[in-house]
Structures are given as C-alpha cells and as structure tokens.
C-alpha cells in the first residue's frame, strides 16, 4: 500500500501557498517589465513591487523605504554583516551568538580574517543567549551585535527585545536573523529596537528567490552588489518581481491567521514532543521546553545516528532532518548542539521535525506510530546499548 | 545522493547483531566522529579442509553508508577463506553498492578495516603467524585511532568536567 507522504521539514523550506502562486502568476507573463524601465511595462512592475514593499514594511512596523529586497536570507545576512562593517570602519568589533546560521558565522569569520575582531556569545543548555552576556561583551569599539530571533535547528526563541534595548542604549547596531520567525511570530522593529533584520519568503509559503533586509533609516551600510542602482543604489540587480509579489501575499496570509495557526501548531507540537518522549526510552528534547518556535520539535536519541534515522523515515514517506555529523558536508556535528554543551557523541542522534500549514494530527499520529520502531531497530544494529 | 543499491542494502540489513563466543572481533571507528563498526567472525572448515569464515555479524553506529557497507562486507566475506576475505577491497564494496558519494568512501574503508581487525584478533588470540600486510594494516589502524583519541582527548575531558560541574550545581 502506498501511503501519502508526510512533510515535516517546514523549517528547511515550505511549499508555496496556492494563493501565493496565483498572485505571482501574472508577473511571469503579462506584467513582466523591469522595474527600472521608464515605459508602462516597467511602471506596472514597479507599482507591484511598491505595493508589496508596503505590505511587508507594515508587517514589521517599518517604513517601506527601509525594506530592501534580496535573493535569499544568506544574501541578507552576508550584506548585513559585511555592509555594516565596510561602512563603519572606525569600529572594528562585532558580536554574534555561537548558534547563528552558517551564513552569519562564516561571514563574521571572513570579516575576522580581514582584520575585524569577533566575539562569539555563549548560549545556555537550551541554546538561548543571555542579554547580560551581550551587555558584558560590548566594548567602546563594538559596531554590531547579531543574534538570531529563533534558532533554525532547535527552535529556541531569543530575548531579542532585551538585547535590542541594550544595543540601543550602548549605541551599537543590532541585527537579527528572523528567517524562522517573520510571518510566524509578531515582530515590531521599533518595540524590539532592531536596526537590521533578515527574512525570507520561502520559509513562509512564498517562493524561493525573494528575501529582504530591513535597514533602519540612518543606519550606515555599504552595498554588497554594485550595478544599475536598484533599491536606492544599495542592492543592484533586476528585481525578482513575481517572487516579491508572492512574498507580500504570503506575508498577508501569515499575518491574518498568525494567532490561530500558532495555537494549532503548538498543540500538535506538544503532542508530538510528549508522545516521543513517552514512547522512546533515552530520548531527549533539544532546545527550550517553552520558549520555542510553535512548529519546532527537536530530539536526540542515545546510541543511534541521525542520517540513518532520516533515511528510515523517508522510506516510510516521512520527510525530516538531522544535524548529525554524517549528514553534513563537513562531517562535523551541529555547532548549535555543541554550543548547548552536548558532546559530539550526543549530537549525532538528532532529529528535527518541523510542522507547518498543512500538518495534520493524523500525520503526527503516524510519526508516533512508526518512530519508536525505527529507533529500536537502529539501536539493535548499534554496538552501544 | 545514495545509489538505489546502497539504499536497498541499508533497508534490508542482513547479518547484524552479535555472535556468541566469536573467534575474532574487529572494533573500528570512533563515537566522537560518528562511525563505529564492530565485526564478529566465527571460523570453520570447508570441504577442502581450509579455514573459512563460517559466520560473520556486525554492529554499527553510523550513517546510511556505514550500515550499508557493514552489511555488504559481511556478505562478501561469508564462506570465504581467510586469504580471500583479506583480499576484499574497499573498491569491491563500493562497486557492489553501485558507488558511494565521495564524502562517504571512508565508510567502506571502515568496513575493510573492521574485517582485517577481526581476522587479526583471531590470529593473535590463537598465536598464529600474522601475515606481514595484515600486521602493517593493524598498525595503521591503531595509529589513526590514537590520533583521533589524542585530538579529542582534551576537549572531551573538558566537556566532561563541565557536565559534572553542571550536575553538582
């Protein structure tokens, strides 16, 4: 019997909402102009981008001219770090958390090799940054603090409002990578004292290829891409109009149902977490038990390896992800789990199940039905008992 | 990323588990790195009176490739004479699996090493003369194990201290 496939990797990417696809569709064919063109085709495309920019700016309580469209969260994060560093060379110290996404970590490490100084903030065992550590790390020459809103692996939500407040008081720029939270958690860039923020459309049922960097008015930043002067000269590139229109549509849908959707997801998530911890011996939850993304469940199982687990789930039509060393191109265990104080041997057996708009209770029940058997099977194969 | 044959091997695990009173055990890999393979062999005689691997089983902690190569090496070695078993190469395993991603080739090396170590263990337990090649292979395996343990030793010790301190608190 062929069973329906179950997708539980929404943190990696989401399918586009059919309503989003519908909104995007005319911009591939009828309204195809280049926003930089003077003629009517260009003007029509530009009007669509302007309207989209406004919708997204409103969602962040920002103004439209503070939203810069990019191609990916990776680009936005690269730009935030390098663009700020290049525009403010009088200050040479950058602070980031040790659980940031690789694109933040490697951008910061690259700047360090160019002569900037870098401080990596520790996290507690749940992967959370302590604002007091931020205050301690800030020096007179500190330029930028970058702490992600919620962690993409273990789902822990950071107290970014407190961190933003500290940065504002100490006159340090504050950037947050909100790739996992924009459209899912309320964000007000003014209340949270955010100067720069990254978000990406394909994490919220939009399309791949559209993302943004919010840059507060007055923040000094250099462009990463030079060229025809799009986006106020700060991000040259022909705009990806369909993906941007889709980004705005996706944002609208997310905002309109955020509260109810989070209640629904949290209920499913908690059922999944409780069920797994009850049914499987020597299973542990990673990340904060309460302050975590409504759609994130992250486990580790002693004595087994994550990639084998993912493959066995995939054979049953269940798509999940792991941060085990074997599954990474570097053959290194997840830096996030190590930063939480786990030993490499504990970090190998990790499993991330991330829920989304089309996750049903029946799907969660199916996971709870098959996962214990898979873990047991792998433990039988393993030399460690 | 894996060939259909590798996935098939992974899905139809054969010969896993322990052998009671094995004639030789080969333990390779390191939990810190994420691949550990234990191979058990039991010897017998064939019709010609030659020593053959009568039974072989594995226990593996590791990824899809590690589990698939473990199964593959046991199938290739079963019923073989010791000389034939020692001649099994990583390339033979990789080719039987329909290829492995380059980053996973080390798993096939691990399988070959585990088999060699199990045979070495049998020879040394029974005070049998050890072929020169096998002796050399054993030394290389022991050395690389030492390097890994050294490399991670301080770090693991520091981590453990931290964990203990955490528990005391």
From TrEMBL, chain A:
<keyword id="KW-0408">Iron</keyword>
<dbReference type="InterPro" id="IPR015422">
    <property type="entry name" value="PyrdxlP-dep_Trfase_small"/>
</dbReference>
<dbReference type="GO" id="GO:0046872">
    <property type="term" value="F:metal ion binding"/>
</dbReference>
<comment type="similarity">
    <text>Belongs to the class-V pyridoxal-phosphate-dependent aminotransferase family. NifS/IscS subfamily.</text>
</comment>
<dbReference type="InterPro" id="IPR015421">
    <property type="entry name" value="PyrdxlP-dep_Trfase_major"/>
</dbReference>
<protein>
    <recommendedName>
        <fullName>cysteine desulfurase</fullName>
        <ecNumber>2.8.1.7</ecNumber>
    </recommendedName>
</protein>
<dbReference type="InterPro" id="IPR000192">
    <property type="entry name" value="Aminotrans_V_dom"/>
</dbReference>
<dbReference type="InterPro" id="IPR020578">
    <property type="entry name" value="Aminotrans_V_PyrdxlP_BS"/>
</dbReference>
<feature type="domain" description="Aminotransferase class V">
    <location>
        <begin position="6"/>
        <end position="367"/>
    </location>
</feature>
<keyword id="KW-0808">Transferase</keyword>
<dbReference type="Pfam" id="PF00266">
    <property type="entry name" value="Aminotran_5"/>
</dbReference>
<keyword id="KW-0663">Pyridoxal phosphate</keyword>
<dbReference type="GO" id="GO:0031071">
    <property type="term" value="F:cysteine desulfurase activity"/>
</dbReference>
<keyword id="KW-0411">Iron-sulfur</keyword>
<dbReference type="InterPro" id="IPR015424">
    <property type="entry name" value="PyrdxlP-dep_Trfase"/>
</dbReference>
<keyword id="KW-0479">Metal-binding</keyword>
<dbReference type="GO" id="GO:0051536">
    <property type="term" value="F:iron-sulfur cluster binding"/>
</dbReference>
<dbReference type="InterPro" id="IPR016454">
    <property type="entry name" value="Cysteine_dSase"/>
</dbReference>
UniProtKB/TrEMBL annotation, chain B:
<dbReference type="GO" id="GO:0005506">
    <property type="term" value="F:iron ion binding"/>
</dbReference>
<dbReference type="Pfam" id="PF01592">
    <property type="entry name" value="NifU_N"/>
</dbReference>
<feature type="domain" description="NIF system FeS cluster assembly NifU N-terminal">
    <location>
        <begin position="1"/>
        <end position="128"/>
    </location>
</feature>
<protein>
    <submittedName>
        <fullName>Iron-sulfur cluster assembly scaffold protein</fullName>
    </submittedName>
</protein>
<dbReference type="GO" id="GO:0051536">
    <property type="term" value="F:iron-sulfur cluster binding"/>
</dbReference>
<dbReference type="GO" id="GO:0016226">
    <property type="term" value="P:iron-sulfur cluster assembly"/>
</dbReference>
<dbReference type="InterPro" id="IPR002871">
    <property type="entry name" value="NIF_FeS_clus_asmbl_NifU_N"/>
</dbReference>
């Amino acid at each position: 019997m062929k069973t329906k496939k179950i997708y539980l990797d929404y943190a990696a990417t989401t399918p586009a909402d059919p309503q989003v696809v519908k909104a995007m569709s005319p911009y591939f064919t009828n309204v195809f102009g280049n926003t930089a063109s003077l003629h009517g085709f260009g003007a029509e495309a530009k009007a669509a981008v302007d309207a989209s920019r406004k919708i997204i700016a409103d969602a962040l309580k920002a103004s439209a001219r503070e939203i810069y469209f990019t191609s990916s969260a990776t680009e936005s994060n690269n730009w935030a770090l390098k663009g700020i560093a290049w525009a403010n060379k009088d200050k040479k110290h950058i602070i980031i958390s040790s659980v940031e996404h690789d694109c933040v970590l490697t951008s910061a490490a690259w700047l360090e090799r160019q002569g900037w100084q870098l401080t990596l903030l520790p996290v507690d065992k749940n992967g959370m940054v302590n604002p007091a550590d931020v205050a301690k790390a800030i020096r007179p020459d500190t330029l930028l603090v970058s702490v992600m809103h919620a962690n993409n692996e273990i789902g822990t939500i950071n107290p970014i409002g407190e961190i933003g407040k500290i940065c504002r008081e100490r006159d340090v720029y504050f950037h947050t990578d909100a790739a996992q939270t924009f459209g899912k958690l309320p964000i007000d860039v003014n209340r949270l004292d955010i100067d720069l923020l990254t978000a990406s459309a394909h994490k919220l049922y939009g399309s791949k290829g559209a993302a943004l960097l919010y840059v507060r008015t007055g923040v000094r930043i250099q462009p990463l891409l030079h060229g025809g002067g799009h986006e106020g000269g700060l991000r040259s590139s022909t705009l990806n109009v369909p993906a941007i229109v889709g980004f705005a549509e996706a944002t609208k849908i997310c905002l309109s149902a955020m509260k109810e959707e989070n209640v629904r997801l949290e209920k499913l998530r908690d059922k999944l977490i409780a069920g797994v911890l009850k049914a499987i011996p020597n299973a542990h939850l990673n990340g904060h038990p309460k302050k975590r993304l409504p759609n994130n469940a992250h486990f580790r199982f002693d004595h087994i390896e994550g990639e084998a687990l993912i493959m066995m789930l995939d054979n049953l039509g269940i798509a999940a992800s792991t941060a085990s060393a074997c599954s990474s191109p570097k053959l290194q265990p997840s830096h996030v789990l190590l930063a939480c104080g786990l030993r490499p041997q504990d970090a190998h057996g990790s499993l991330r199940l991330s829920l989304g708009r089309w996750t049903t209770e029946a799907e969660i029940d199916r996971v709870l039905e098959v996962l214990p058997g898979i873990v047991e099977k792998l433990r039988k194969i393993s030399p460690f008992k | 990323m894996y060939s259909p044959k590798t996935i098939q091997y992974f899905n139809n695990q054969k010969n896993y588990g322990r052998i009671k009173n094995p004639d030789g055990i080969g333990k390779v890999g390191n939990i810190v790195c994420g691949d550990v393979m234990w191979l058990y062999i039991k010897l017998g005689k064939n019709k010609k009176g030659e020593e053959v691997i009568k039974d072989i089983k594995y226990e593996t902690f590791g990824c899809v490739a590690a589990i698939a190569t473990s199964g593959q090496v046991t199938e290739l070695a079963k019923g073989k004479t010791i000389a034939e078993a020692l001649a099994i190469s990583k390339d033979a395993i990789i080719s039987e699996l329909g290829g492995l991603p380059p980053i996973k080739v080390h798993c096939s090396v691990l399988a070959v090493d585990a088999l060699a170590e199990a045979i070495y263990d049998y020879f040394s337990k029974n005070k049998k003369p050890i072929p020169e090649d096998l002796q050399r292979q054993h030394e290389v395996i022991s050395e690389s194990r030492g390097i890994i343990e050294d490399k991670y030793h301080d770090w693991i010790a520091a981590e453990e201290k931290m964990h203990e301190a955490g528990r005391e608190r």
